[in-house]
Amino acid sequence: MPPTSLLIAGTHSGCGKTTVTLGIMAALRQRGLSVQPFKCGPDFIDPSLHLLVTGQTSRNLDIRMCGPDWVRQCFARHADSQSISVIEGVMGLFDGGNGSAAELAALLNVPVLLVLDVRSMAESAAAVLRGFESLDPRLRLAGVIFNQVGSAKHLQLVSEAVRRHCQAEIIGSLPRENGISLPSRHLGLHMGAEADINRQQLVSLIEEHLDLDRLIQIAGEAQVRSAPPAAPIMESVGKVRLGVAWDAAFCFYYQDNLDLLAAAGAELVRFSPLHDKTLPEHLDGLYFGGGYPELHAAQLAANQQMREQVLAFSRAGRPVYAECGGFMYLCEAIADSGGGRHEMAGVFPVTARMGQRLWRLGYRRAELREDCLLGPAGGVLHGHEFHYSDIDPMPDQVRRVYALDDGRAEGYLLNRTLAGYVHLHWGGSPEVARWFVRAELSSLYRTHQLP
Q1: Residue 397, exposed/middle/buried by CB under 10 A (0-12, 13-18, 19+)?
Q2: Residues 259 and 404 in one domain
Q3: What is the mean pLDDT of the chain?
Q4: Which residues are part of the catalytic machinery?
């Protein structure tokens, strides 16, 4: 039996898609349903909010980074007939090329609910919706939710026009003044652990203004296509202890990467560069994800003992991997836009400098130019880049092991520490986890910690 599932999309970024998605997830949970969340695209923040309201780990479904087979297998692995699967789209329904929410809905064959912001329109909403309905015949645009409705008369005008000209069923409408707001910062919304979300207020909004029973029926009509046969997620190559930096400063990780590492034999040991004075004992490698080190730079700098231990770990030739915010922590310092400077671990002899504007954004394809922690020369990795900082020119003696498809050389390698700005998702190259674990094992043999 196909899993009960639906995809919630928007007409554009900022139309209220995330608020609606979180409200629906929370309302379904309050009704006693098990909700499995998913996120279309590379975002880290929305999945953390999904976890907050559902209690379930949200999975990224990204065709561009992982390929269609991995996406279908990931969905099949985590969506089951005992739960309702809710996928949050990305940007507008058709934005993002082959990584769009429309492509994902077509790939999985799940029904789509469209969030339509009607703040500055009335009957014209029907023209917008009809365009979305007709653009891709592969999609089943099953329902529409109006957001930012100003009055009963406004709702009447929009609803009559949509019923006259469109096929999508009206599932409900949310008033303009609903008291719900999600705080944001320069990389997007606040993470789930920090977000001040009034769960009951969300549930009340959805139950009062949406036909949740009909929404559940639509999800139950999904005809999800079966996934291609999947090999076991990974085979263990040996047992190692991998320290994973995890706190308010380092919180951007794809759960699938962590699962692959665990399956390959890594015991994942969390530690906090913000709060812990020492690294956990008997670690064989370190993994620093992205996050918000710039917001916690003073506290990270004050924890000198941890910074010194990380530097010593790297200089001893032990495997260390870092992405984006984690890479910034491994630099000499973080300089904020106001002229402040905060000392970091000092593995790489450069300063990361915060800017006032987005520095780089987009998908990246990385080809390995030499053997490294993540694979052999010639291997291809896929990821996404999104940051407001940049580094001083990296000295030539620091090797670059990635050739990026935008013409840059990145993936800075010093000792056995590999770092860069690109967030990699290993769904398209799951063998990366085995390479990383093997690198840790080889380090153990070399330092005589294995019999």
Answers
A1: exposed
A2: yes
A3: 92
A4: 324
